[in-house]
Design goal:
The protein is built from 13 helices and 18 strands. It has 438 residues and is an alpha/beta fold.
Amino acid sequence: MRQTLSSLTLRGRSFLGAGIAATLCSLLLGERILLRIGLLLLVLPIAAALVVARTRYRLTAHRTLESPRISAGHAASVTFRVENVSRLPTGLLLIEEAVPYQLGSAPRFVLDRLEPRGTREISYTLRSDVRGRFEIGPLSVRLADPFGLVELTRSFARVDKLVVTPAVQPLPDVHVTGEWTGGGDSHAHTIAAAGEDDAATREYRHGDDLRRVHWKTTAKRGELMVRREEQHWQSRCTLFLDTRHRAYHGEGPGSAFEYAVSAAASIGVALSRDGFGLQLATDAGVMLTGYGGLADVGGGPLEGMLLEELAVVRPSRRLDLAHGIGGGRVTAGDGLLVTVLGMLDDDDTDLVARLRQGRGTGIAVLVDSMSWASAKVRDADAARYADSARRLRAAGWRVVPVGYGRALAKAWPLAGAAASASRLAEAGFPGTPAGARG
């Protein structure tokens, strides 16, 4: 009886209350006709609830996502199919899909009748301007009687995951390295010297192509081993993202922090498609290490892993960069080091400046966080931002200043090997030496 009463709609409860009131009034007034009306109002919702509760529909549902990973600001197409596998036709079905509020309102659909062995396919779209990893489902079905007195809800258990990645901007082709900055696991003459069966091998690393597995050595060692000679000389890059909350202004999808995450995604995708081996790190530590190449074009292993990691990165409460890049946690050696940074104080600027070592190339994408703030904050931080750009450039870094309303694609050529102080002066960016402006 408790389950029956809980399945009554507002209309059904109103019928039940009116029936009780009419029955009591009929007993007090001695009106038999009123008693019949009251009993009818009482019996109708209870009978409808018992009929719906005892109806044994057997339904199956299958959900299909057109793509399990979309970019922020784009739509995802979802299709689900409901099938009645019982021998009885269904009544009115109210179908609702549970989705997080970031993806919009919950999709709702009405199926008037589903014949035995019949199927229905329903499609809808989801859109999110907020990146993240979201669960879609479970799908719930509400059974209702023709009078709308009872609704009984049944839910499926299956949920699917949708990853909303940062927006990626296509970047122009830029020669970001000076001299050759990478090294493979072995030289090109390894095969000739050792032979194919005795090829130099190393242990399997996350992101390695399984086609490179050397099965003979794997059988001997008892762990996956891959060929060294199949990975030729490859430039490597360390991509560092400053995630400190205090380094950025603004809130929501249009904040300076989201701009920085999108910039890191754009740079990482461009470098992975150029064949760079990539290491992603934040002020919390190293998040990802993988190898790029032609197999990764269009969303391959490294690109997909990079975007999924950046989809869930959140601002940290750390006050400085010492935890992330101090103590040699982030190093590039003679390779390429790209940093995406927010506002820096003097200590942080010195720490970043010392990261570039030897002949390595350092590129600092310096987000002008003050351009997202009020005029009062901009006046206070303008000198500090210009000083950070100047000091990094003096330490041999290629500084790419970006800010609110300034597309990364337009500023990215400043990261090229041919970028000079005069080009920075022509672009009108802060922190340019006075002599270059002349």
